[in-house]
Write a structure and sequence with these properties.
- The complex is a heterodimer of chains A (304) and B (362).
- Chain A is built from eleven helices and 13 strands.
- In chain A, β8 and β9 form a beta hairpin.
- Chain A has two domains: 210 residues, P-loop containing nucleotide triphosphate hydrolases (Rossmann fold, 3-Layer(aba) Sandwich), CATH 3.40.50; 66 residues, Alpha-Beta Plaits.
- In chain A, α3 packs across α4 and α8 packs across α11.
- Chain A is of the alpha/beta class.
- Chain A starts with a strand and ends in a 6-residue tail after the last helix.
- Chain B is an alpha/beta fold.
- In chain B, α3 packs across α6 and α11 packs parallel to α15.
- The chains are: A alpha/beta (304), B alpha/beta (362).
Chain lengths: 304, 362
């Protein structure tokens, strides 16, 4: 039985259809990613699953419970990390952890959580003294204070520097190794690609693609990409006409050309640039990523 | 629910580690009391009480009365003109002024005795409890001295609010009521701040029931209100020299908590309209500030113009101030205690109900 079952979930705020018919399952022990730009409906979806918002329609089961009907029961079993929670400014790190622990029958040891999140030297710091990344790590620690079977992390790595982000990823992989099911929203591609067993790509309240990260990329692009910046002279149409090109996307003057045969495409691109006298800058060849998938599916980047 | 104590402790820590809040809730009322106490406070009450005697009648009966009064050691008699003696009373130099009216002696002979006029300040507890009974006793003695079997010496008691003596006793309970109001209404700022910081949202994702969250917060506010009240009563006695009715102190604590609950409920209600801590302040000020001046805290209600009375009657601080003044110094009641407590209870129930309805986690 799946840990989470969602069928045709809908939630509107006035005319805004924040979640417009979403269905998916999450299996036990899975790290399930929800990827999309701000306003795509990820947070609303997750908060309905957490019992923080009431859906308009659709069926939802989390750990076999309906969050709208058995919210309190569910909240005992799951862990939650929310965006932009500032916590009690004048409490100390260990005080906040024990406070949240006191809300549950099952509680992890405060110092274990502090060690897990690498906050040992900030144990006695006040919340108001924490850096953005430290506060974010604390909020992840609070999400597992009740040793939950299922944890929801809403953009957990926001505000972290690359090193802290990598160490958070190790922690989340640790959750998975402990048998926890993780639902993770993010707009970091790398995060989704590294952590998630499956990714739901959301836009405008809908899931527009759902698969393993690798499969999503392969499905959309069997190819590598040539990426470059060109300030004038080259249009998306020109690029689409190059040899062996399978697709092209442009963001202003930044272009990505996908190719089934990089040397041939490269040759014709260089010839075209020479003919038009168009500059080519920051050119590189790379693999296609989820970012490309998202851009292809929606015409927008994730951080729009 | 074993989260109540940790939540209470969290409130406590947030409170004592916030210097500004600490200043406003503890130091500010203390400063207030200190200033009023030093400016308006009176010295020690001696064993005898200064009483002015104005004799406007030259009859032997009036002379007898004078002798009798002079025989009472508790009364330190000063004789003078009516106008100057009443002036002294108003300035607090006299506890009471006894006027023997012109024609007092002849009126006794005519069997239609004129009453004596006694001016005093009723809000003065020692006057009310000591001087007036002594005077009444003196009049009884005078009656017998005038060899009449039925009372001929009667007194008409006329009240006058003296300034110096009265103000401190009048203001201290009011200041305490004010600090209860501020502690309650502004105490709600903690909740607004938690909501603004999305902590309430985060707490709503735990199994913690809302009643535990609110209960721990209210319990903490009440402890603050109680400690504040105890401290301020103590200071009122120490600095202001207010003679407090000790036997009423438990009841005073009860009234402080009832008033505190009513004002916390009002604060929670107001908090529903403020998105941020910054936004809460002006709203709370608009509600509390007029009450300071119109609820009889600094100015007695009977000096207020009639048109403002309905507004005054709608203010909860009016009832809290009156109840505290009655209990603490035996002030003259404006309303009955039942009405005072009843109105506070109604405010509590109505605003708590509204606050619950309007309560939002974010």
């Amino acid at each position: 039985m799946p840990v989470i079952e969602v069928r045709d979930l809908r939630k509107a705020y006035g005319d805004l259809h924040a979640v417009a018919g979403v269905s998916f399952d999450v299996a036990e022990g899975e790290v399930f990613g929800m990827l999309g730009p701000n306003g795509a409906g990820k947070t609303t979806t997750v908060e309905i699953l957490e019992g923080l918002r009431i859906r308009d329609s659709g069926n939802v089961r989390v750990l076999g419970l309906d969050p709208a009907a058995s919210g309190r029961e569910l909240k005992r079993l799951v862990g939650v990390q929310l965006q932009q929670v500032a916590l009690y400014p004048r409490l100390r790190v260990h005080e906040v952890i024990s406070l949240f622990g006191s809300f549950y029958e099952r509680q992890a040891h405060t110092d274990d959580l502090i060690a897990m999140m690498g906050l040992e030297d900030r144990r006695n710091a006040r919340i108001s003294e924490l850096s953005g990344g430290q506060a974010q790590r604390l909020s992840v620690a609070l999400a597992v204070v009740n040793e939950p079977q299922l944890v929801f992390l809403d953009e957990p790595s926001t505000g972290m520097d690359p090193q802290a982000r990598r160490s958070l990823w190790d922690t989340i992989e640790g959750f998975k190794a402990d048998g926890m099911t993780v639902v993770l929203t993010t707009h970091y591609m790398e995060e989704a690609e590294r952590l998630c067993d499956r990714v739901a790509v959301m836009d405008h309240g809908r899931i527009i693609a759902l698969d393993r990260p690798g499969a999503l990329v392969r499905e959309s692009f069997a190819e590598d990409a040539i990426e470059f910046v060109s300030t004038d002279g080259l249009t998306a149409e020109d690029l689409g006409g190059l040899a062996s090109v399978t697709g092209a996307t442009s963001q202003g003057s930044a272009h990505s050309v996908f190719s089934s045969d990089i040397p041939r495409t490269m040759g014709s691109l260089l010839a075209l640039a020479q003919e038009r006298d168009a500059p080519l800058e920051s050119m590189r060849v790379r693999h296609a990523t989820l970012e490309d998938v998202f851009l292809k599916l929606t015409g927008r980047t994730l951080r729009d | 629910m074993n989260a109540l104590l940790p939540l209470f402790r969290a409130n406590y820590r947030e409170f004592v580690r916030d210097r500004t809040a600490l200043f406003w809730t503890i130091a500010f009322p203390i400063l207030f009391i200190g200033i009023f106490g030093i400016v308006l406070g009176r010295g020690d009450d001696g064993a005898s009480y200064e009483v002015g005697l104005v004799v406007e009648d030259q009859s032997p009966q009036a002379a007898t009365l004078r002798e009798v009064l002079a025989g009472f050691e508790a009364l330190e008699l000063t004789e003078g003109e009516r106008e100057s003696e009443i002036g002294m009373l108003a300035e607090g130099e006299r506890r009471a002024v006894v006027v023997v009216p012109r024609g007092f002696g002849p009126s006794i002979n005519r069997d239609a005795p004129l009453p004596l006029q006694v001016h005093y300040d009723p809000s003065q507890q020692t006057t009310q409890q000591v001087v007036v009974p002594v005077l009444l006793r003196a009049f009884e003695v005078a009656d017998r001295a005038l060899t009449r079997t039925r009372p001929v010496v009667t007194a008409e008691f006329q009240t006058l609010q003296s300034e110096r003596l009265q103000v401190i006793d009048f203001i201290m309970p009011g200041l305490i009521a004010m600090s209860v109001m501020n502690g309650g209404v502004f105490g709600a700022i903690a909740m607004v701040s938690l909501r603004e910081r999305r902590v309430l949202r985060r707490l709503s994702a735990t199994p913690l029931p809302a009643w535990a969250l609110v209960g721990a917060d209210v319990a903490f506010r009440m402890v603050v209100v109680l400690l504040q009240t105890i401290l301020l009563v103590f200071l009122a006695v120490l600095i202001g020299g207010v003679s407090v009715k000790v036997e009423n102190l438990p009841a005073l604590a009860g009234v402080a908590v009832l008033g505190g609950l009513a004002f916390v409920a009002i604060g929670f209600f107001l908090g529903a309209f403020a998105k941020t801590e910054q936004g809460f302040f002006p709203i709370a000020q608009v509600i509390t500030f007029p009450m300071l001046f119109l609820s009889g805290i600094f100015f007695p209600l009977d000096t207020m113009p009639d048109w403002i009375r309905p507004l005054v009657s709608a203010m909860p601080l009016t009832y809290l101030g009156d109840a505290m003044r009655q209990l603490m110094v035996g002030g003259a009641p404006v309303h009955s205690m039942t009405l005072n407590l009843g109105v506070l209870a109604v405010f509590l129930i109505v605003f708590f109900g509204l606050a619950v309805r309007l309560f939002k986690y974010e």
